[in-house]
Specification:
The structure is a single chain. The protein is mainly alpha-helical and 312 residues long. Helices cover 54% and strands 6% of the residues. The strands form two sheets. Strands 3-4-5 form a three-stranded antiparallel β-sheet, with no helix packed on it. A two-stranded antiparallel sheet has the order 1-2. The termini are far apart.
């Protein structure tokens, strides 16, 4: 009985590319292990086999969160085989895995956030090497224009990530038609192709407007898609790795894009926002996912108390 990995991956069409890649990687890793121990297909896999595999992962000193994710991938895979009639019994049913570490999300401090959101200084007379985001000297006026365009784009990206709490993948997928600058709103396409309308902060509206008016025409090429809001140096749609590089250039400390989303949610709750409202703004399907930010806020309150109260 074949493993039918291609069919399983096709069944994940509604999931995000990152989710599909994670499921595909995890299941293929399991298949490689299963074949090394003499199993030729999913029909030869039993519940004990899966428990042995999770124990094997633990011996490799993988994080509990990683093992829990791999167990979830296996449940998704064998559940699909059962639903499609390939297997009569799902060996992964009620498969237990270690709970993930209860790490609180990183929230940016005031100085870190100010550095990220600070407008870039006027660029010197320089340009950018083809295919990269690193400037090189140039003898014509296209150098300063391109550097200013990059600065406008970078500021708009950071303002949207923090001002609207977007995921990096949601920001990269934005089209100009997804923005309503007059109403200060953006339509984001989240996980599972779920759509939500999120308010934009006034600074993000102004930075996006400046990017579209002054920056985007400079970076656009004849091959650029009119549907892409943000472009990289090659005139192609901005990707998550490009977003990470933007933060690397602007951040005081190593920062990942999701930290801005964490900060957005925590600041909303600190300001008195209702938990259900924050859930809707973030596009979380489960309220429990949003509740982690209440713990972050409690940690901040405790820190303030301990550092300011005379008897703390």
């Amino acid at each position: 009985m074949p493993w039918q990995l291609e069919g399983f991956v096709r069944s994940l069409a509604s999931a995000s590319p990152h989710t599909v890649a994670a499921y595909d990687y995890d299941v293929r890793e399991f298949v490689g292990w299963a074949e090394r121990v003499g199993l030729s297909g999913p029909g030869a896999v039993g519940r004990l086999t899966l428990r042995r595999y999770l124990a094997y992962l633990a011996t490799r000193r993988l994080a509990r969160r990683t093992i829990a994710r791999k167990a979830a991938s296996l449940r998704r895979y064998f559940g699909w085989l059962r639903r499609t009639g390939v297997l009569e019994v799902d060996p992964s049913a009620r498969l237990s895995a270690p709970h993930g570490d209860s790490r609180l999300p990183r929230v940016l401090r005031g100085g870190e956030l100010d550095a990220l959101l600070a407008p870039a200084p006027e660029p010197p007379s320089s340009s950018t090497a083809p295919g990269s985001d690193h400037p090189v000297a140039s003898g014509d006026d296209r150098g300063p224009r391109r550097l200013r365009a990059v600065a406008l784009r970078d500021l708009a990206v950071v303002e949207l990530l923090y001002g609207s709490g977007l995921r990096a993948s949601e920001l990269c997928g934005l089209d100009p038609d997804d923005l309503d600058l007059r109403s200060r709103a953006v339509v984001a396409w989240g996980k599972g192709s779920k759509q939500r309308r999120v308010p934009m902060s006034p600074p993000s509206v102004e930075s996006v407007r400046a990017w579209m008016r002054e920056g985007r025409p400079v970076l656009a090429t004849s091959d650029s898609s009119d549907d892409a809001l943000f472009l990289n140096q090659r005139g192609r749609r901005l990707g998550p790795r490009d977003v990470r590089r933007i933060l690397d250039r602007r951040a005081q400390n190593p920062t990942y894009p999701h930290a801005l989303r964490h900060t957005y949610a925590t600041h909303l709750l600190d300001g008195g926002a209702d938990l259900r409202a924050v859930q809707e703004l973030l596009g979380h399907a489960d309220l429990a996912t949003t509740q982690i930010y209440t713990h972050v806020s409690k940690e901040r309150l405790r820190s303030v108390y301990q550092s300011t109260h005379p008897r703390a």
